[in-house]
Write a sequence for this structure.
């Protein structure tokens, strides 16, 4: 491998295809690249659903959007990969080494192609990689890929940039649901596709009911994604708060979600993408992680986890070997309430 600390790229491609939370985490590394190479154009290579993460980001010049349906045709796919690979990059940073990244790199003639330490069968695609990457916060780990460039993490946060129009749209959305500008707003994310990372809807409902008893001018906005509305409805029903607990009829866009979290004084939720949006827009957060590790929590008093004292937590498993989901079920709404009141 060559020493690349002195390179001065004019065009950089960053590859982070999915998932949405991981894409948000990659924005910390993008800001570090922009700081190191302020005159370079930074382009992004990502899946279509993740493109809105980069809206309004001053460090990002262009986004290559991967439409999976379009790429089912192998000829169209190869043409797309070639178009991206031949777009004149001096530096490629690949955070995932997924098949669609590797296909693109087959056509790429960038003199520096950087990634994490690749398995032997991928090494011909890359010119440089760090020999080791420190653990800890996930965005820090991701930024460890940049070490051969002389870039250190330096507590860089994920960044989501909200425009003034998006702020106003969020305000209009809340007004249509009966939320006033002077009312305290908390966003709530009670859903997760993995049951080992989903605090019971009954607990969320009880938590916000207890909060509403103590703070009279508070309202709650429930966030949900496609296929998750039933959980949101259940939380609202259990809370018994009627107009003080609001939600959309249909799942909103990522940009609206980000703007609503920006408006909130606190975000409470499971270990999923909205917690990373909270960090990105500067809203304090409380996460009930379940089986997730603390590597997903930004190291700051503004962003905390609430977990019971169990030897098996975190297990990072998709099933519970105990069979009782104690890390979720035994964490009472009253336990979380104490932490919320501290924040408020």
């Amino acid at each position: 491998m060559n020493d690349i600390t002195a390179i001065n790229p004019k065009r950089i491609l960053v590859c982070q295809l999915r998932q949405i939370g991981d894409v948000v985490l990659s924005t910390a590394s993008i800001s570090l690249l922009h700081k190191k190479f302020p005159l370079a154009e930074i382009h992004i290579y990502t899946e279509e659903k993740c493109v809105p993460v980069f809206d309004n980001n001053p460090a990002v010049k262009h986004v290559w959007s991967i439409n999976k349906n379009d790429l089912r045709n192998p000829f169209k796919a190869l043409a797309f990969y070639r178009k991206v690979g031949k777009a004149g990059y001096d530096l490629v940073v690949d955070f995932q080494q997924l098949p669609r990244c590797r296909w693109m790199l087959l056509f790429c003639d960038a003199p520096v192609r950087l990634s994490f330490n690749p398995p032997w069968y991928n090494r011909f695609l890359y010119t440089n990689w760090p020999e080791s990457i420190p653990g800890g916060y996930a965005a820090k780990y991701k930024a460890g890929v940049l070490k051969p460039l002389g870039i250190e993490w330096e507590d860089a946060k994920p960044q989501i940039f909200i425009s003034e129009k998006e702020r106003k749209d969020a305000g209009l959305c809340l007004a249509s649901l009966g939320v006033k500008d002077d009312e305290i707003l908390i966003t709530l994310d009670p859903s997760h596709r993995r049951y080992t990372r989903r605090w019971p809807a009954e607990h969320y409902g009880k938590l916000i009911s207890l909060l509403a008893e103590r703070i009279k001018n508070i309202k709650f906005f429930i966030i949900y994604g496609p296929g998750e509305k039933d959980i949101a409805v259940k939380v609202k029903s259990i809370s018994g708060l009627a107009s003080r607990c609001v939600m959309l009829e249909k799942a909103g866009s990522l940009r609206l979600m980000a703007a609503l979290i920006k408006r909130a004084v606190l975000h409470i939720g499971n270990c999923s993408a909205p917690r990373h949006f909270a960090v990105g827009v500067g809203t304090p957060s409380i996460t009930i992680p379940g089986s997730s590790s603390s590597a997903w929590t930004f190291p700051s008093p503004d962003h905390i986890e609430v977990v019971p004292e169990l030897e098996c937590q975190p297990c990072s498993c998709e099933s519970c070997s105990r069979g009782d989901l104690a890390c979720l079920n035994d964490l009472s709404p009253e336990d979380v309430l104490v932490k919320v009141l501290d924040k408020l």
